[in-house]
Amino acid sequence: MNAPVDISAVTLRTPRLALRPWRLSDLEDLYAYACVDGVGQMAGWPPHRSRTDSLDVLSRFIAEKKTFALEYQGRVVGSLGLEEYNESQFPEFAALRCREIGYALSKDCWGRGLMPEAVEEALRYLFEEAELDAVFCGHFLSNVQSARVQKKCGFSHYGYGKFQTRMGTTEDEEINLLTRADYFARRETARL
Length: 192
Prior knowledge:
This protein has helices at 27-34, 51-64, 114-129, 144-152, 180-191; strands at residues 12-13, 17-21, 67-72, 75-83, 98-105, 134-140, 156-164, 170-179. By secondary structure, the chain is α+β, with helices and mostly antiparallel strands. The protein has a single domain, classed as Aminopeptidase (3-Layer(aba) Sandwich). An eight-stranded mixed β-sheet has the order 1-2-3-4-5-6-8-7, sandwiched between helices. Strand 5, helix 3 (114-129) and strand 6 (134-140) form a beta-alpha-beta unit. Helix 1 packs across helix 2 (51-64). The longest helix has 16 residues, at 114-129.
């Protein structure tokens, strides 16, 4: 089942990032990365054509209380959402507390290891503080960067599916999973 989340009062920190709730003052930063061709398409949404597009998304981020702003060097460079997974697609998880994560990162920050850093901290929060049982994360088969992030963060293949994008297309996707037991086993191995 989809566990309830509310990150409106949660701020997480990594060596380089703050994962924090969105603020209306983040509008320019959101528009700056979301209008760039190639960023949104990796996650199934079209580039923002105007600040009005960004304001609509920003208002939803604030109201829904489930998406972190990724702040790096004083500006917001991405987002990480604690999304609802498709319960009808995975009925075997009905008795477990789960979520799905999704993320986007400014093109000028690609290749710096920022997204694995953010995902690792989000997973720590989800398993150690929110006490989830499993976290899903998917990527389009063509998105090798996202596949690398997920592998680096300990996710394992769970299945394949089809994803309906906000651009009116259907993409083939790989669905990956990290269970609570695997998360803690991985942390223990890293300590040795």
